[in-house]
């Protein structure tokens, strides 16, 4: 390995916007078989829409909906109405998941599952005269276990992306509603819907639409119809690695004859409502116990509410300085310790650390009292990890707090963290604008084979999308979003060790979870 071939102070890696960390559920939007009420529609494919929910009473089919996480189904508010003026609501609602063909109870190995609806939520009571705010959340009696044919659709929670999603011109709608025969369909149907100017809906429906509604149609007679209400209008969106089906509309209403123009509730206009209900509803009942290195890694954990910080803020990021120069990056893991890579850390020169979004004033810096390089560190290829001990404790806030790591004394918890980290997709975090990106694991045995560089079992080889570049330096973290109640949290998986300055080259990270025992001997909580 030659020093000219590899980065040491900065590697170039492309980072898209936040990726899955802005999504309601990180396991969303990926179907196994993308192959569709729908007027002039086509069969949707048995595994193509695992998020579809059939809303029914014990005796009749009512509407459609979508699974958006393991406890909630998203649908239309008017689906709850039992009377024409919505003065009376349906009771004993059931959400059927994993359904494809309503005429059979046995669809190969993919059986449907019924979940009782225990409560529902609306932004405000539905008004039949306007159809504004036609959105509802149905809470299921028990948690859903994801399977091949039962998975959630993606909901983008960052409302700042609304201007971008408003530019999406083509969607897919799915449902069991009336077809051109005049009967509801047994087999799930799909149709392509184009976004239309709101004035078009006014011309056909004599309805003035608001910014929280979408006007859509196909131009060929295909349409959503009675029975499709509550179903999704979705489109594929890339997070930089995976194309995910993301819901942007809910079937609301259209002409009585169907076959033309329809109105859809704009999901992005209601993400605050969705986030508030889903992430704060009976959250203490749902939370599992996790044994962390430092429980302060959960934002506002004691208050039981979500932090107000923007989703792209990473309050555990650290810059390590030698005088006025950044020598490496790192991650805060407790009140007194920062984890980084060892290669660029000087032996006997004073260091200081700056965290998160704070300004670079002298009061913001934390002096490093001692450096603990791994005792078996030899080079970039072996045990490239170091622990920096700070002279004073860090006081946690929304802007500064540690990243989540498992307890060094709990082996089962370490195994759980490693299992999640072993998934193919992780998030690489860098510095500056657009500083995070979904990246993919590469085969370690082939990572730097051309340089005769062996990648050990305590290292991770990552590759990133060829369409992007980003700021990642030595010690920059590789993380995984952590779903834990209403906390916006991350677990630390790796620290950037080495890579090439060449565009789109693979990069090697130190596998932090391989060193939890060593960390436990130094970090005393």
UniProtKB/TrEMBL annotation:
Pfam families per the UniProt record, alphabetical: Trypsin (PF00089)
Leader sequence residues: 1-22
Gene Ontology BP annotations: protein maturation; proteolysis
Superkingdom: Eukaryota
InterPro entries in the cross-refs: Peptidase_S1_PA, Peptidase_S1_PA_chymotrypsin, Peptidase_S1A, Ser/Thr_Proteases_Immune/Dev, Trypsin_dom, TRYPSIN_HIS, TRYPSIN_SER
Entries under SMART domains matching the protein: Tryp_SPc
Keywords noted in UniProt: Disulfide bond, Hydrolase, Membrane, Protease, Serine protease, Signal, Transmembrane
Gene3D superfamilies associated with the record: Trypsin-like serine proteases
Domain Peptidase S1, chain residue ranges per copy: 38-279, 302-524
Molecular functions per Gene Ontology: metal ion binding; serine-type endopeptidase activity
PROSITE patterns listed in its UniProt record: TRYPSIN_DOM (PS50240), TRYPSIN_HIS (PS00134), TRYPSIN_SER (PS00135)
Family: Belongs to the peptidase S1 family. CLIP subfamily.
Protein name (record): Transmembrane protease serine 9
Natural source organism: Drosophila suzukii (Spotted-wing drosophila fruit fly)
Gene name per UniProt: LOC108018069
């Amino acid at each position: 390995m030659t020093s000219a071939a590899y980065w040491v102070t900065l590697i170039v890696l492309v980072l898209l916007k936040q990726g899955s960390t802005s999504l309601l559920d990180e396991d969303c939007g990926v179907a196994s078989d993308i192959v569709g009420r729908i007027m002039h529609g086509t069969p949707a494919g048995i595994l193509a829409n695992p998020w579809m929910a059939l809303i029914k009473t014990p005796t009749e089919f009512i509407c459609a909906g979508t699974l958006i996480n393991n406890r909630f189904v998203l649908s239309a508010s008017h689906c709850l109405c039992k009377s024409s003026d919505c003065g009376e609501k349906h009771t004993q609602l059931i959400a059927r998941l994993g359904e494809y063909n309503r005429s059979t109870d046995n669809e190969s190995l993919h059986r449907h599952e019924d979940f009782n609806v225990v409560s529902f939520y609306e932004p405000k009571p539905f008004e039949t005269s306007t159809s504004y705010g036609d959105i509802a959340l149905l809470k299921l009696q028990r948690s859903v276990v994801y399977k091949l044919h039962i998975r959630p659709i993606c909901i983008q929670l960052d409302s700042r992306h609304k201007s971008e999603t408003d530019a999406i011109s083509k969607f897919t709608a799915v449902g069991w509603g009336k077809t051109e025969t005049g009967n509801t369909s047994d087999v799930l149907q799909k149709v392509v819907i184009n976004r239309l100017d709101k004035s078009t809906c006014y011309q056909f429906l004599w309805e003035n639409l608001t910014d929280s509604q979408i006007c859509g149609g196909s131009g060929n007679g295909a349409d959503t119809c009675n029975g499709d209400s509550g179903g999704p209008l979705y489109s594929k969106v890339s997070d930089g690695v995976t194309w995910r089906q993301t819901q942007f509309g809910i079937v609301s209403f259209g002409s009585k004859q169907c076959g033309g123009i329809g109105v859809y509730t704009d999901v992005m206009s209601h993400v605050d409502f969705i986030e508030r209900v889903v992430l704060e509803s009976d959250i203490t009942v749902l939370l599992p116990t996790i044994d962390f290195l430092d429980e302060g890694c959960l934002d506002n954990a004691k208050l039981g509410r979500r932090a107000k910080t923007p989703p792209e803020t990473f309050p555990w990021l650290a810059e390590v300085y030698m005088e006025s120069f950044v020598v490496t990056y790192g991650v805060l893991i407790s009140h007194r310790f920062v984890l980084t890579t060892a290669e660029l850390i000087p032996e006997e020169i004073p260091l200081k650390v700056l965290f998160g979004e704070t300004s670079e004033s002298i009061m913001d810096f934390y002096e490093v009292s001692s450096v603990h390089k791994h005792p078996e560190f030899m080079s970039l290829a072996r045990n490239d990890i170091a622990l920096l001990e700070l002279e004073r404790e860090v006081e946690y806030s929304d802007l500064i707090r540690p990243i989540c790591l498992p307890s060094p004394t709990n082996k089962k918890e370490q195994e759980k963290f490693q299992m999640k980290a072993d998934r193919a997709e992780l998030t690489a975090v860098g510095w500056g604008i657009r500083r995070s990106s979904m990246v993919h694991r590469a085969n370690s045995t082939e990572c730097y084979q051309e340089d005769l560089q062996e990648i050990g079992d305590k290292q991770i080889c990552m590759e990133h999308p060829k369409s992007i570049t980003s700021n990642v330096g030595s010690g920059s973290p590789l993380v995984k979003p952590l779903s834990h109640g209403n906390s916006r949290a991350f677990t630390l998986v790796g620290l950037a060790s080495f890579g090439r300055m060449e565009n789109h080259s693979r990069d090697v990270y130190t596998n932090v979870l391989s060193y939890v025992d060593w960390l436990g001997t130094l970090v005393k909580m």
